[in-house]
């Protein structure tokens, strides 16, 4: 991951959703439940391939203390993310 430091961004958490922002826009968010199931993850196209999805998933894992479980992806991009996540989880 490319020197991604969370203190450079604003991180909000509201009942099962982490949202990562900068001063101009939402970078991405992840929706999850208490058992570590990822219901939805999104990263703004401008910020993709910079480690934001991985960081959001790490936050979920730390918060829940559970192994991440993914719902069936709804897009080809989701399939691609799931394959890459399987390599590091």
Characterization of this structure:
This protein has one domain: Aminopeptidase. The protein contains two helices and five strands. Strands 1-2-3-4-5 form a five-stranded mixed β-sheet, with helices on one face.
Topology:
Blueprint: E1 10-14, E2 17-21, E3 26-32, E4 37-43, H1 52-64, E5 69-70, H2 76-88
Parallel strand pairs: 4-5
Antiparallel strand pairs: 1-2, 2-3, 3-4
Brief overview:
By secondary structure, the chain is of the alpha+beta class.
Shape: globular
> Poorly predicted ranges (pLDDT <50, ≥5 residues)?
none
Number of strands: 5
Mean pLDDT over the residues: 86
Structural class call reads alpha+beta
Instruction: Count every helix, treating DSSP H or I runs of 4 or more residues as helices.
Output: 2
CATH fold name, please?
Aminopeptidase
List keywords for this structure.
89 residues; 5 strands; 29% helix; five-stranded mixed β-sheet; globular; alpha+beta; single chain; Aminopeptidase
């Amino acid at each position: 991951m490319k020197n991604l430091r969370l203190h450079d961004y604003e991180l909000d958490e509201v009942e099962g959703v982490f949202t990562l922002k900068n001063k101009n826009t939402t970078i991405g968010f992840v929706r999850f439940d208490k058992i570590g199931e990822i219901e939805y993850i999104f990263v703004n196209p401008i910020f993709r391939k910079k480690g934001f999805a991985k960081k959001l998933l790490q936050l979920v894992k730390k918060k829940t203390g559970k192994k991440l479980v993914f719902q069936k992806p709804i897009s080809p991009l989701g399939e691609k993310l799931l394959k890459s996540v399987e390599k590091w989880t």
